[in-house]
Amino acid sequence: MPNTKITKAVIPAAGFGTRLYPATKVVKKELFPIMDRDGKVKPVIQVIVEEVIAAGVEEIGIVTQPEDTGVFKDFFQKPPSKELYQKLSPQNREYSEYIQELGDKITVLTQSEQEGYGHAVFCAKEWVNSQPFLLMLGDHVYASNTEKSCARQILDVYEQSDCSVIGLDTMSVPTIQKAGCITGTWREFKSVLEITQVYEKPTVEYARQNLRVEGMKEDEFLCIFGLYALTPKIFNFLEEHIKNNFRERGEFQLTSCLDRVRVAEGMTGYVVKGKSFDTGMPNAYRQTMIDFSQ
């Protein structure tokens, strides 16, 4: 039987953005501007939210620091000031109403202490309420190579599967030490595979010995794209790690819990037909500004 339809998405956005300091002293990195393919300059978080909505997901939970809840609520749910509204063109006045319609689908959640990506995801547990959910990074935007958005591709694979799905991309040796990587066995060659290991930021030596996938070029590996369709089982393992204070690199991480979900329920990998753009590092953000709207 296919999995339950996913109706909720979680977007962690509670980090400090230290790699983009000092700009992030005054502006959350999720609010950095980017020109979208429709020609409008938007904050990164709006582009991500629009990706979610276009995929057919009905509710979005944005996880942020308590002191930043107003920032996201003001953007999505508060109309422009009277003075600004009067200066807007008729088209932008209408557009401001569209942004508030997006806001109607958004719940702002909080992470009181910034203790890692896994901890941020766990903060959405009660809101997710034992349902499967779409998980997206708060500092990545996506461009599909097909008529289906990247998020919709993941959801389609999930609905045909019986387990969690991780979106994947191909990366070479210079970049794998910054990403979560996987290995597995192809179900559909270079498209869908059964994951047999999820590993965070491997060394080159470890990847060469343990993370090779049939048919991939030498020193080319499958790494996490930044889109996930997850069963609520992930919260069991995150909660266990938090209760037992099991930290990796000083924080509660997601990747090791993903591997435990894989062992418990199985896990599917899908090579996304599209590209992920990082806006969370200076050089990557600059390149995204150049390439994303093309």
TrEMBL record:
Molecular-function GO terms, alphabetical: UTP:glucose-1-phosphate uridylyltransferase activity
Gene3D superfamilies: Spore Coat Polysaccharide Biosynthesis Protein SpsA, Chain A
Domain Nucleotidyl transferase positions: 8-288
Enzyme class: transferase
Record key words, sorted: Nucleotidyltransferase, Transferase
UniProt EC number: 2.7.7.9
Residue intervals passing through the bilayer: none
UniProt xrefs under InterPro entries: GalU_uridylyltTrfase_bac/arc, NTP_transferase_dom, Nucleotide-diphossugar_trans
Gene Ontology biological-process annotations: UDP-alpha-D-glucose metabolic process
Reactions mediated catalytically: alpha-D-glucose 1-phosphate + UTP + H(+) = UDP-alpha-D-glucose + diphosphate
SUPFAM superfamilies membership: Nucleotide-diphospho-sugar transferases (SSF53448)
Family membership: Belongs to the UDPGP type 2 family.
PANTHER family: UTP--GLUCOSE-1-PHOSPHATE URIDYLYLTRANSFERASE
Protein name: UTP--glucose-1-phosphate uridylyltransferase
Taxonomic source organism: Mastigocoleus testarum BC008
